[in-house]
Amino acid sequence: MIRIGDQDYALSDPLVIAALIGAATILLVLVLLIIAVRRSGRSELMVQNVATQVLNLGQNVQTLGQGQEQLFGGLRSVSDAQTTGQSQVMQQMETRLAEMRQQVSDRLAENSMKSARALSDMQVGMKETLHGSSEKTTKSLTELQERLATIDRAQTNIEKLSGDVLSLQDILSNKQTRGAFGEIQLNDIVSKALPSDSYSFQTTLSNGTRADCLIDLPNPPGPIVIDAKFPLEAYEALVAAETRDDQARALKALGAAVRVHIKKIAESYLIEGETADGALMFLPSEAVYAELHARLPEVVRDGFAARVWIVSPTTCMATLNTMRAILKDARMREQAGAIRKALKQLHRDVEIIGEKAGKLETHLRQAGDDVSGVLTAATRAGKRADRLDNFDFEELAPEDETPLPLSRPDPT
User: Fold this and answer.
1) How many CB atoms lie within 10 A of CB 150?
2) How far is residue 354 from each of residues 97, 351, 398, measured CA to CA in Å?
């Protein structure tokens, strides 16, 4: 800061910087002139020139001083205007700050009220939510208990089923019990598909062999045998095989086992004149049946050649339904004579009904005539009663005195 009189000027002010630079320039010129004069002190002309330049320099300095005074006046005016503007700005800022304080205060009060209401609503909502959550939790726990009870029952059933599976494994592991299992399944299928008088189980044939099931079909084809077989060991070996060689050996063993059963059925149950020219081999497993048809079709063709047809539970049911249709048709043919006799009797009964209807028509016609005569007699009796009621005996005119017949006239 530079203080001149009662006015302070800042060194960063451009005008002050310009004045200082000008003064420094003038001073530098004077110094250079003095040095030049001293060096050329013998030259009067130069001294005069220097004096003239100094005089001019003094005039310039004076002019510069006047400019500085004008500059100081302008700076003072600018400072006063700046002071006035700062005062006005300060007043406006204070007014604006007061307004902002009031607005902030109002908004704070409004936000406080909103926060209080929101907090109250939140408390109510939290209370309702907690109540609902409590009810839902209670309901969920109840449902969970019910599901746990269901799971316990299911676990019990699973344990029971596991026991049944183990029992089934025990059954299938023994050849005799496995055969009984197939026979029971066959009995169940046959008993559901056919009438009870059209089949028999464990029937002994003339060659001494015992058939698991004998279907009594009419000739042709005649009684047909169904024998249950279950090559479980060979099939399990095929399922357990991991390499191609093991699978090939297991397939070969399965085919050999089935061929043995086919040969035994063909030799034991195809009896000429007693059974049909073919038999059924029942496999109680759809998996074994599918494996044979998918990977061992030559074994199935061998069965066809030996007149032994391999059936599964599904195809056996379809075959038995076909047999049921054959039995129904045969029984209808057997009953055809009885049906014709019944139709003749029905025709005679219809003729008798016609004769009776004709006689009834005659009797009804005669009854109609009798009713007509009765009505005529009643009319005459009414007229006579009216005349007798008036006591006009002299005026009574003779009328037809023909008496009505009391007996029914002969229709002939």
Assistant:
1) 10
2) 127, 5, 50
Q: What is the pLDDT of residues 81-115, one digit of tens each?
A: 777 877 887 888 888 888 888 888 888 888 878 87
Asked whether residue 207 is assigned to any structural domain, the reply reads yes
Q: Are strands 279-282 and 199-204 parallel, antiparallel or unpaired?
A: unpaired
Global pTM exceeds 0.85: no
Query: How many residues belong to the chain?
Result: 412
Q: Is 207 helix (H, G, I), strand (E, B) or coil?
A: coil
Give the residue carrying structure tokens 């008088």: 197
Question: H/E element holding 370?
Answer: helix 336-390
Residues 189 and 318 in one domain: yes
Helix axis angle, 44-173 to 175-193, nearest 10° = 90
Distance separating alpha carbons of residues 156 and 144, to the nearest angstrom: 18
Please check whether residue 270 is in contact with residue 278, taking contact to mean a CB–CB distance below 8 angstroms.
yes
Range of the domain at 402: 354-412
Judgement on whether residues 187 and 96 belong to the same structural domain of the protein = no
Q: How far is CA 376 from CA 92, 383, 385, in A?
A: 139, 11, 14
For residue 121, pLDDT beyond 60: yes
How far is it, in rounded angstroms, from Cα 409 to Cα 175? 96
User: What CATH number has the domain bearing residue 296?
Assistant: 3.40.1350
Contact yes or no for 201/224 (Cβ under 8 A): no
262 with 300, same domain?
yes
Q: Rounded CA gap, 29 and 32, in Å?
A: 5
- Please count the other Cβ atoms lying within 10 Å of the Cβ belonging to residue 60: 14
The structural domain count of the chain equals 3
Q: Are residues 198 and 307 in the same domain?
A: yes
